[in-house]
Design a protein that fits this description.
Elements (H helix, E strand, L loop, with lengths): L23 H4 L2 H20 L11 H25 L8 H43 L5 H17 L3 H14 L11 H29 L17 H20 L7 H19 L6 H68 L1
Helix pairs in contact: 2-3, 2-7, 2-8, 3-7, 3-10, 4-5, 4-6, 4-10, 5-9, 6-7, 7-8, 9-10
Length: 353
């Protein structure tokens, strides 16, 4: 089947989210143009840094960790930009709040799904540690136990994580709300809308890559458009084409396991398994030692990189949670101020009467 059949065509039914600010100079003050340009230039540089130096580095755990580091940095920069805009909460459209809060919950769920997959992969790595332990032992039954652990690893690693399947569905819903409501008709609101759109597009792209890598399927992988008005558009289009193209290429070749470190483990397991099956008496000693060394090195690298990825997922989760709490806090303050003003107005009317 042609891979193009698997692509969704997002927001064809939406309008252009940048129609109000395609010409920044004519509608925004120099200060706002400077804030927006600075943010978009930083976003562009982060996207450029996501272009893998090596073609097979697209689906490595180290690339995924770097991608999440970039997302965390982008989220922090957004908070700084919002503070610099000094946009009053009561100028924000309620629909925007609803979309933001709903999407933040979706992203938190996605983070939980990714974290569960990292934990599952770490659990699988325990079987490999058992293999290495048994083969280091002098017990007569070491080969039988090692073979059993290798079989358990194969079964575990080939199983599906339902939470990852759920992540793909959540991301599809997220895409449908990328064209967010405007924050009234203010220049600050338009800057914030454009900024948040860029963040959301990059976030969906990276999370979509994670879902494809962890699920072993590229069927729900989406190519997102980037409006030419954005300074980051060209960099985004380039890195998305490179990463998504490589993922589809791997899957079109019939491969299910695509994460580089897992592929290395699988290669080591395939070499070791037939040697263990032969038994202690007939095994080729040098070949066995070499295979054990390869598996030990691959397993150690997997453990290290899974730990690094887990930390970045946790950091991203906390940043999302903090941003959500901060917005809810502003909403409560805004509500208190609004209620106080309403109370004062009612009191004045009563005095007049």
């Amino acid at each position: 089947m042609n891979s193009n059949h698997n692509l969704r065509k997002p927001f064809l039914h939406f309008g252009n989210p940048f129609r109000m600010i395609s010409n920044k100079g004519s509608s925004l003050s120099p200060k706002l143009v400077g804030l927006l340009d600075s943010f978009e230039e930083n976003l562009m540089e982060k996207l450029k840094s996501l272009k893998p130096r090596e073609q097979d580095g697209v689906l490595s755990l180290s690339w995924m960790t770097s991608a999440l580091e970039s997302l965390c940095a982008i989220q922090t920069e957004v908070k700084s930009l919002i503070s610099a805009l000094e946009l009053p909460v009561n100028d924000w459209d309620e629909k925007w709040f609803d979309v933001y809060l709903d999407n933040s919950v979706k992203l938190l769920d996605v983070c939980i799904g990714f974290r569960s997959e990292v934990s599952r992969l770490n659990q699988g790595n325990l079987f490999l540690q058992s293999v290495l332990h048994n083969l280091d032992s002098a017990a007569p039954v070491q080969f039988t136990k090692a073979e059993s652990s290798l079989d358990h690893w194969r079964q575990h690693i080939s199983s599906k994580n339902p939470r990852i399947e759920k992540c793909s569905s959540i991301l599809c819903q997220f895409i449908d709300t990328l064209d967010v409501p405007r924050i009234k008709n203010s220049s600050k609101g338009r800057v914030l809308m454009r900024t948040m759109y860029g963040v959301r597009v990059v976030t969906v792209f990276i999370c979509d890559v994670f879902a494809a890598a962890f699920s072993g399927s590229a069927q729900k992988l989406v190519d997102l458009p980037a409006p030419e008005a954005c300074l980051w558009a060209e960099a985004f289009t380039e890195v998305q084409a490179l990463v998504n193209g490589e993922i589809r290429k791997i899957h079109s070749g019939g491969k299910v396991m695509v994460v580089k470190e897992l592929v290395a483990i699988n290669t080591s397991v395939k070499k070791l398994h037939p040697l263990v099956q032969k038994g202690e008496d007939t095994v080729e000693v040098e070949a066995l030692k070499s295979s054990i060394t390869d598996l030990r090195n691959s397993s150690a690298e997997l453990t290290q990189r899974l730990d690094s990825l887990a930390r970045e997922i946790d950091s991203f989760f906390q940043i999302l949670l903090a941003g959500r709490d901060a917005l809810l806090g502003k909403l409560r303050v805004g509500s208190d101020v609004s209620n106080m003003m309403q109370h004062n107005n009612n009191a004045k009317h009563q005095v007049v009467r």
